[in-house]
Design a protein that fits this description.
412 residues; alpha+beta; 2 domains; six-stranded antiparallel β-sheet
Length: 412
């Protein structure tokens, strides 16, 4: 049982740290509980805030609950005299190299048309900002994809090249003595490089594929033809993808948006088809899970995507804290916690190195979040969720405040 004096200590310490003039004008929400969910500290815990990548905690828990730890998506292939048919249930960790192996294994001609059935292919989720779309972190979302919907523009012998292939994107190079700059428009499929190229070969930028499913089909043959359903006959080849736990483990530490979107849609489709526009139904199923299974009030969550890239997402820190406390009681809990980012690693590479923290960071312009499990000096575990919106100081200064609060809690 938490003694009243300890409760007073946590409240006074947290209040003191949050009473920082750098947070003046910001929206600050913080919830601290024990593993049973008992509230130890609350500062605007019922306020709706934009979570950034803390949204990934919702989508990853949902996917693991719906699919289990060992579920592996599969992609099926039918080789026919005049076409290749692909049925993709969603394998977000499919690679370019693996598709090349499949093409060689099937022995298909590169000019054969490719017909594809996808479980989902929303491409760009509603609510994503146009300015984000050229970047790898905002790659289009579809079940038939590879390399997480991204490719790179690289320097090779002081010339720009696209790796692994161009996929219909044209590069225009204008060498000057100015500093190097790359610009890319995925809609027009045009990349422009200006400036002085480096002497050494290196990656200049990572970009979002214009249409990952079309690009994937181009590796196997020529032409992309969507079809409403796959053949009823047994396929010639079935390829299993990474397990749901492996996907979550690859998603959370680096905060991979593309994997998070796929986790949301993979989990949601377990309950039935999602249709041509999957996000409204997928988000409804996510909220149903959070409400019916976890016990979170529906008014506390409003998901718009699975990654947190949309600014239309909102939630409360009491909802995030409740989810983390719930996870501790579940069979998936230990594996989910191990898949999170840990002190001094991933997106916490330079943070919280002297204590044990397992959780998730989140960062967007004027948004910073940190939620997870704190192991205290006495060996107890606390749950914390912090979300700061619309601060005027730097993200580094907000991180310092968050870290100070976590360290103070760990010392209690």
């Amino acid at each position: 049982m938490i003694l009243p004096v300890l409760l007073f200590s946590i409240q006074s310490v947290c209040d003191r740290i949050l009473d920082n003039p750098k947070l003046d004008g910001a929206t600050v929400a913080v919830t601290v509980t024990d593993l049973s969910g008992k509230n130890l500290y609350d500062h605007n815990g019922s306020m709706h805030v934009v979570p950034a990548s803390n949204q990934k905690l919702l989508s990853s828990a949902f996917a693991l609950w719906e699919l289990g730890l060992d579920y592996k998506p599969q992609t099926s292939f039918w080789k026919m005299p005049d076409r290749l048919i692909v049925d993709s249930t969603g394998d977000p960790m499919m690679s370019y190299a693996r598709l090349k192996e499949i093409q060689s294994q099937l022995g298909t001609r590169r000019d054969i048309p490719v017909y594809v059935h996808e479980s989902y292919a929303p491409q760009i989720p509603d609510g994503w900002d146009y300015d984000d779309l050229p970047n790898k972190y905002a790659a289009p979302v579809c079940s038939f994809t590879f390399d997480r919907g991204a490719f790179a523009i690289c320097s090779r012998h002081r010339r720009p090249v696209l790796v692994p292939e161009s996929f219909g994107v044209k590069v225009h190079f204008h060498p000057t003595s100015d500093s190097l700059e790359t610009r890319y428009n995925p809609i027009t499929r045009r990349a422009t490089v200006t400036g002085e190229m480096p002497k050494e070969d290196k990656v200049l930028d990572t970009l979002a594929l214009p249409k990952p499913d079309e690009a994937a089909a181009s590796i196997l043959g020529r032409g992309f033809h969507p079809i409403p359903e796959a053949p009823a006959t047994p396929p010639d080849l079935v390829v299993q993808g990474a397990s749901s736990l492996e996907i979550v483990s690859a998603c959370l530490p680096p905060s991979d948006n593309n994997l998070a979107e796929n986790l949301l849609l993979l989990g949601a489709q377990k309950e039935g088809e999602l249709g041509k526009h999957p996000y409204p139904l997928a988000c409804k199923r996510l909220v149903d899970f959070l409400n019916h299974v976890v016990g979170i009030d529906r008014d506390d969550v409003h998901p718009f995507d699975g990654s947190g890239l949309s600014r239309h997402n909102y939630l409360t820190t009491r909802a995030l804290a409740k989810l983390l406390a719930w996870g501790n009681t579940q069979e998936i809990g230990p594996a989910w916690r191990m898949a999170m980012v840990h002190s001094g690693k991933g997106t916490l590479g330079n943070r919280l190195k002297k204590i044990k923290f397992d959780g998730k960071t989140g960062s967007m312009d004027r948004v910073s979040s940190l939620s997870g499990y704190i192991t205290t000096a006495s060996g107890k575990t606390l749950v914390v969720s912090m979300v700061m919106n619309q601060f005027s100081c730097s993200a580094t200064e907000v991180h310092a405040i968050q870290d100070a609060l976590v360290v103070a809690l760990a010392e209690n």
